Amino acid sequence: MSDKITALVEKITAALIAYRRDFHRYPESGWTEFRTTAIVADKLQQFGYTLRMGRKAIMEVDMMGVPLPEELEKHMERAVRQGAKAELIQVMTGGMTGVIADLKCGEGPTVALRFDIDANDIEESSDEKHLPFREGFASQNGSVMHACGHDGHVAIGLGVAELLAEMKDEISGTIRLIFEPGEEGSRGARAMVSAGAVDGVDYILGIHIGFQAKKTGQIICGTGKFLATTKLDVTYSGKPAHSGAAPEEGKNSLLAAATCALNLHAIARHGQGATRITVGTLVAGQGRNVIPPNAFFQMETRGETSELDDYMAEQSRRIIAAAADMYGCQYAIKQVGGTKSGESSPEMITKVKEIATAMPFFNDIIEYSSFGATEDFSHFMTIVQQNGGMGTYIMIGSDLAAGHHSNYFNFDESILAPGVELMVRSVLDLIGRK
Ligand SMILES: [Zn+2]
What we know:
It comes from bioreactor metagenome. Its EC number is 3.5.1.-. By secondary structure, this protein is α/β, with parallel strands linked by helices. The protein folds into two domains: 4-225 and 341-433, Zn peptidases (Aminopeptidase), CATH 3.40.630; 228-339, Alpha-Beta Plaits (2-Layer Sandwich). It contains twelve helices and 14 strands. It has helices at residues 4-25, 34-47, 69-81, 86-91, 131-134, 150-166, 189-194, 253-264, 306-326, 346-357, 377-386, 416-430, and strands at 50-53, 99-105, 110-116, 171-180, 203-209, 218-226, 228-237, 275-284, 294-303, 330-339, 342-343, 364-370, 390-396, 432-433. The strands form two sheets. Strands 1, 2, 3, 4, 5, 6, 11, 12, 13 and 14 form a ten-stranded mixed sheet that branches. Strands 8-9-7-10 form a four-stranded antiparallel sheet. Helix 6 crosses helix 12. The structure holds zinc ion (ZN).
């Protein structure tokens, strides 16, 4: 397969590593990816793409789990200090990070590629054994780290963008690149889908470094059994009272929340497939001798299918309301994350397999693997499939220094170039050629 594409990939290999290291040095977590988005947008514009940003890329009412305005403000300032163009940052006011980029090359199908761009709330290791630290590109942003490989995904995205732009005259169709914010916590896809990110999309591809593909040279061509999820923040408000003199005057939010937590875990499991539920935090009360007027907890449900997750979420809402009623408290539910289940399209898996087989780099080709966890990509893919299109989620194998979301996480940079090559060849196979 030594041809024009191979030559183009070789030409940008050093740039891919430089991109990756730059994004790794300045990681940003969900809805604060101001610098990352600005750098990406600037490049895409240079390559000739038409961009949608801010309100054109993100539907505000569907943004979930957005940090407080003062937090966002701080991150916007930091992004400019760290080299982002101020005019691009302004467009993202309110945390509307991420970008949708189109390259229209005449009549033909629309092929979309999704790249997630956010980092994790983790303090990166400053151990000499940790390569990013040793080589001087460890996180400069305290308590945030690219510990899932999304820095690599952004780099691959830019590589793909550049190569496809160079091959523009040979393509017939539209290329759409979706750089998604807030993938962690399943927060970004819904707001992008409602802003039209996958309107008119015939094929969609997603990629992740590592996960089940733990060796360099390995590839998983399609993934399924993504768990659907709903993430809720729940607040109870009651009434404080003296615990000795007048407990009968209080409304006990702590007991409402505790009763609720126990009964959420007791929801009858559905006969049609696997479900999960977790109350992960619970804080309540003000003092030892005060009837607790306040309680707050964070919970999530998951389901093998979107319907099963809907069942768990609906039952949860009923129990939250009933527990409030038992203790005479008020309650409020805020959805802070959520995504659909998903299954890659068999035809697309076959195509990716053929392409990977023809690339000497891949020596361990696995057709399909079940994900068994949640990925916001499944939200994009499911909507594309509902509209009559197809999609697949690929895992590019990499030797990993430590597991995902570990402070020692690092992947093998030699996979970036083959990642670009695989994506470019897949797009060229799906889209029309002149
Ligand atoms: Zn990830």
